[in-house]
Every structure is written in structure tokens, then in C-alpha cells.
Amino acid sequence: PIYVLGYYQKFSRFISQSIWKTNDEKIFASSVEEEISNNLNPLFQPNKHKFHSGGREDVDVRMLGGGRPFVLQLIDARKSKSVTLQDLQKVEEAMKENKLVNIRNLKFADETCFEYLKRAETDKSKAYCCIVSVSYTHLTLPTIYSVQISVVAVSLKK
Asked: What is the pTM of this model?
């Protein structure tokens, strides 16, 4: 197999990470796996592919920041020898127009890339952001600050 390693960012809250089917019917119109493989498979013309990532996110969660590491494993590729690093860079450039998924730092890898993905899953620090709406009459600033989380900004509106 050929292994292509890179990082993806997911901009949409309406696509899954991998193809999601129930009773052979797709649940979502697209997935991160499809957006990436639809752009890389034509280069290699594999009989099939497998998508692997360093962790997962829920469907309704975007993956921003530096992105999540992934490997596209291309099995029985007919054009394995002719694809260059420059070809991978052209795919990266073309996917910058994609409104759902972006990819970066594509490179060829070997089977040791799975060790990297496992480490990325456990070593990565995560940051979450949310908006909480509560009744002003029941909430005081001391109550907010007594919660065992890191509060970056608090805005109270009457």
C-alpha cells in the first residue's frame, strides 16, 4: 500500500469524519474521508482506500487550528510510482477552494505512520469553546468563578 500522511481541518458541522451509512444509505452528503479521497484517489487510482486519523470529532464539531493528522492508505494503486510530492502539493492547493475540508502538509509515509497517529491521539491538548445562557437572577460572578474550569471571558446581559 501507499500511505499519504497529512493534516485536515473540517469547517462544516454537517459532515462526518468517515462515510456513515445505515442500511446502505448515506446519512450525510459527504465526509472528511470522501473529500480527501476524492482528491487523492485520481492521482493513484487505487482499487480501494482506508482512511485513518489521530482521533475523532463529533459530526457537529468543526476541527480547526492546526488540524487533525490523518493517513490515507491507498491499496493496489495503479499509479504508485509516478506520483510526486509536487503532485500532492497541487492537491493541497486545489483543496483550498473546498468549503468543507482543507488539507495541509501532505507527504508520503510508511507503516510507522500509525504509531504517529496513536501518539497524536493521546498527546494532543484540546481546547473547547461554548456559549452558556442562563437566567441572570440566578447567577453571580462568584458562582461562575467557583466552577472548576478555565473561564476566558464572561459576559452578562440583563
From this structure: 0.74
